[in-house]
TrEMBL record:
Record protein name field: Beta-adaptin-like protein
Region of interest called Disordered, as start-end residue ranges on this chain: 1-24, 642-689
Organism superkingdom: Eukaryota
Subunit composition and interactions: Adaptor protein complexes are heterotetramers composed of two large adaptins (beta-type subunit and alpha-type or delta-type or epsilon-type or gamma-type subunit), a medium adaptin (mu-type subunit) and a small adaptin (sigma-type subunit).
Keywords for this protein: Membrane, Protein transport, Transport
Annotated ranges, domain Beta-adaptin appendage C-terminal subdomain: 721-838
Biased composition (Polar residues): 10-19, 652-664
Biased composition (Low complexity): 665-685
Pfam families, per the entry: Adaptin_N, B2-adapt-app_C
Subcellular location per the Swiss-Prot or TrEMBL entry: Endomembrane system
Function: Subunit of clathrin-associated adaptor protein complex that plays a role in protein sorting in the late-Golgi/trans-Golgi network (TGN) and/or endosomes. The AP complexes mediate both the recruitment of clathrin to membranes and the recognition of sorting signals within the cytosolic tails of transmembrane cargo molecules.
InterPro entries membership: AP_beta, AP_complex_bsu_1_2_4, ARM-like, ARM-type_fold, B-adaptin_app_sub_C, Clathrin/coatomer_adapt-like_N, TBP_dom_sf
SMART domains assigned to the protein according to its UniProt record, in alphabetical order: B2-adapt-app_C
Organism of this sequence: Eleusine coracana subsp. coracana
Length: 843
């Protein structure tokens, strides 16, 4: 009789293992049990195996007992076998040399009489994932695919996919994909068929990504109608997950004729009543894709899927309702009339979470038409007083969107104007924004809207967008609002207390519009607004005020045409979603692309958005054919773009050797009382002289900034300069010319912040200048100082321009030294060079 295993005097608790001493104790007990044939040996092995697994769970390294665990694996107890397989699978990859010890007993178990042990052994063998042991997997897998037990065949099908991930060559050489396909078409067990389909899809997808020939071969498998109809005829036998896989595969089927389409739809008709929402959506995707080329049938499919979708919205969990609503929204975008008669199904319930309510509001907006607008707007108005402020805002916006897409807006406008009487700040702000949009599309409603809006005090509006909308209406309809100039004047007096640049920008434009409609009452406010705007620290506000002031100096009639031109009603507002994007999302129906596209924040959808914020407007790249010449650009616009320090340098250079006289701002825009109340710096900025000509020199900007630079006659514009697109100059000739030629110009100019940042890669500047026909012959330096030598050639002649350019990225300044064979063209070349340099980093 085998000796009895001694019991340890102090056995550590399985839940509180004692580290290395515990592992040593376990190894000793496993050795003693390895050859034991005692009646209770299996029970003792089970207890020791439980302690080993407990140590694994606690994070203790028990890999030292690998050999002893393998020695004790010879048992008929299924529970002990499972624990042994679990241990081996956890440590085989970390100890590939020891994993070789498991091959014999795993292969032996694969031939066991018990199908459960055969399946467990095969699964454990495939889970080793050790490349050196691949040769031992092929035979058990091939045998497992033919095993009489369905459980073993299921394990073998999944094991084939595991083998492909370990060694694709071994899997393909053993022709396992063909075996899987044959088994999938003939096996009587539905779960075996499902596992074969999962494994084949995984193998085919990876193979198609690696080889075009494999992709064509796999495509032939997909096109085979026998495969599709075999799976679809048995779809009721599959689990829900397997049904979704089969339906996803069916959505890629290309039927040979209409009869096949109708056969598939008849087979799947009952899947539309399935209790699982994933199965229903997968079936709908098949129906929609199969009938895409059949317009009449496609429309009938929309009608058929309506009832199942509405059932899923109301019967499932909030998460399921949201997912189904996302797909409904996508369908409504393609067929707006589909759910117009079922609008009540999208009314918000008290128990709906906010994300479902918001999506239902979007659905109500999308399905609104002439027949249901009144009922939908009535329901939305009830939500405006909701305690959930975001939902209340969305409901007001929904009413406005419906108004913008309808022809008869009488009742809607009345409802919107009633919102202004609710005395809630967020309701008033959202309503004003919508009223502004309505007036842009329906100017005929201006008298009714202005009568109500005129009674609103700007002091009661705290949100910038609402206040900006009110200011826009004050400027646009100042001729109809008696107190408009005085309200605007009050807002200008509180300029420093307004923190939103958007509001200040709207205020500038509104005062300008009001001035052209009611000049005597707005003259004082306009002067104060321009003064405050020019001294504003926000760059956009400063630039716009400066632009308006110089525009008025140039010609008030031109300024009126720019600021307050005749307007036409806006017929169509910018769409928030492109049709191309909708089609792409529709192709991915029943995937995460649909809900993820809808819940992505609108401000991050890229170029499909229309920006309401005036401070974020950007100018796109100009067509090269429409770009004005560098000389005209210097004459007309350079003053508006240069910074103060740039203008000092430029102004000093231009005014050398010329007679000077004082230049003053026009007094008809600035009242005497305003002048007396300005601080000294601003008083110097607005003196009482009157210009004698509508054509202004570049010194207007200097005078506005209080730099005290005097006026000089505008220099005669140099002739237009064209550069040779392919100049040639070798380094030796460049060096000789640089030593011989006199210095033509020495200047300092500015780079854009984007250009300074882009100089982290100096080659990008060299490529940019080459695009402007200016070549670089040498460069060097370390951050923040870089030095470049450029050259260019005048088109048609041999005259060259040589430039030394030293750039400091910290200050975003460039020091230029220009030498030229033709000194008379140096000024024009300098203009071209600075224009090209200023655009660096902006494209």
């Amino acid at each position: 009789m085998a000796p009895t295993v001694p019991t340890a005097a102090k056995s550590a608790s399985p839940s509180q293992p004692s580290g290395k001493s515990e592992v040593a104790d376990l190894k000793q007990q496993l050795r003693q049990l390895a050859g034991s044939r005692a009646p209770d040996a299996d029970d003792q092995r089970r207890d020791v195996f439980k302690r080993v697994i407990s140590c694994m769970t606690a994070g203790i390294d028990v890999s030292a007992a690998f050999g002893e665990m393998v020695m004790c694996s010879a048992t008929s107890d299924v529970v002990t076998k499972k624990m042994c397989y679990l241990y081996v699978g956890a440590h085989a990859r970390a100890h590939p040399d020891l994993a070789l010890l498991t091959i014999n007993f795993l292969q032996r178990d694969c031939r066991d009489q018990d199908p459960t042990i055969r399946g467990l052994a095969l699964r454990s063998l495939c889970s080793l994932r050790v490349p050196n042991l691949v040769e031992y997997l092929v035979t058990p897998l091939t045998t497992g695919l033919k095993d009489p037990s369905a459980y073993v065949r299921m394990i073998a099908a999944v094991g084939a996919a595991k083998l492909y991930h370990i060694s694709a060559t071994a899997c393909l050489d053993a022709d396992l994909p063909a075996s899987l396909k044959a088994l999938m078409l003939s096996d009587p067990d539905a779960q075996v068929v499902a596992n074969c389909l999962h494994a084949l899809q995984e193998i085919w997808t990876l193979e198609a990504a690696n080889s075009e020939s494999a992709a064509r071969e796999i495509e032939r498998h997909y096109i085979a109608s026998q495969l599709y109809f075999t799976l679809l005829n048995r779809i009721k036998e599959f689990s829900e997950w397997a049904q979704c896989t089969v339906l996803e595969l069916a959505s890629k089927f290309l039927p040979s004729d209409n009869n096949e389409i109708f056969d598939i739809m008849n087979l799947l008709e009952d899947r539309l009543q399935h209790a699982n929402g994933a199965v229903v959506l997968a079936t709908i995707k098949v129906f929609l894709h199969l009938t895409m080329s059949m317009t009449d049938v496609h429309q009938q499919v929309y009608e058929r899927i309506k009832a199942p979708l509405l059932t899923l919205v109301g019967a499932g969990s909030p998460e399921q309702s949201y997912s189904v609503l996302c797909h409904l929204h996508l369908l409504v975008m393609r067929a707006p009339m589909l759910f117009s008669s079922d609008y009540k199904s999208f009314y918000c319930q008290f128990s709906d979470p906010s994300y479902v309510k918001k999506l239902k509001l979007e659905m109500l907006t999308a399905i609104a038409n002439e027949s249901n607008t009144y009922e939908i707007v009535t329901e939305l108005c009830e939500y405006a007083g909701n305690v959930d402020v975001p939902i209340a805002r969305e409901s007001i916006r929904a009413v406005g969107k419906i108004a913008l897409q309808q022809y008869d807006v009488n009742a809607i406008v009345d409802r919107l104007l009633q919102f202004l009487e609710m005395d809630k700040d967020y309701v008033t702000a959202e309503t004003l924004v919508l009223v502004k949009d309505l007036l842009r599309k329906y100017p005929q409603w201006s008298h009714d809207c202005i009568a109500v809006v005129g009674n609103i005090s700007s002091k009661n509006i705290q949100e910038p967008k609402g206040k900006a909308a009110l200011i826009w209406m004050l400027g646009e309809y100042s001729q109809d609002m008696h107190d408009a100039p005085y309200i605007l004047e009050g807002l200008v007096e509180n300029w420093d207390e307004e923190h939103s640049p958007e509001v200040r920008l709207h205020l500038l434009t509104a005062v300008m519009k009001c001035f052209f409609k009611r000049p005597p009452e707005t003259q004082k406010a306009l002067g104060a607004t321009l003064a405050a705007g020019i001294s504003d620290t926000h760059q956009d506000v400063h630039d716009r005020a400066l632009f308006y002031y110089r525009l008025l100096q140039y010609d008030p009639s031109v300024a009126e045409r720019v600021v307050n031109p005749p307007k036409q009603a806006v017929s169509v507002f910018a769409d928030m979603q492109s049709s191309e994007m909708k089609d792409r999302i529709f192709d991915e129906f029943n995937s995460l692309s649909v809900p993820s596209y809808l819940f992505t924040d609108k401000d991050h959808r890229g170029p499909f958005e229309y920006s309401e914020d005036l401070t974020n407007l950007t100018v796109g790249a100009e067509d090269p054919e429409n770009v004005i010449s560098a000389q005209r650009y210097q004459e007309n616009d350079n003053d508006l773009l240069l910074s103060t320090s740039d203008k000092e340098d430029n102004g000093t250079r231009v005014s050398n050797g010329s007679s000077t006289s004082s230049y003053n701002a026009p007094s008809d825009l600035i009242s005497p009382s305003l002048l007396s109340s300005q601080p000294p710096a601003e008083s110097a900025l607005m003196t009482t002289g009157v210009p004698t000509s509508s054509s202004l020199s570049n010194f207007g900007l200097d005078d506005l900034l209080g730099l005290g630079v005097t006026e000089a006659p505008a220099p005669r514009p140099p002739p237009a300069l064209t550069l040779n697109s392919k100049p040639v100059l070798d380094p030796g000739t460049f060096q000789r010319k640089w030593g011989q030629l006199a210095l033509s110009l020495s200047q300092e100019c500015s780079l854009s912040p984007q250009g300074a940042a882009a100089l982290m890669n100096p080659q990008s500047l060299i490529r940019h200048m080459q695009g402007n026909y200016i070549q670089c012959i040498a460069s060097g330096g370390q951050p923040p100082n870089y030095k470049f030598f450029f050259y260019a050639q005048k088109d048609g002649v041999t005259a060259f321009f040589l430039v030394e350019c030293i750039i400091n990225t910290a200050s975003a300044k460039a020091q230029l030294k220009i030498k030229a064979d033709d000194g008379t063209a140096a000024e024009a070349f300098s203009t071209l060079f600075q224009s090209a340099l200023s655009k660096f980093g902006l494209s």
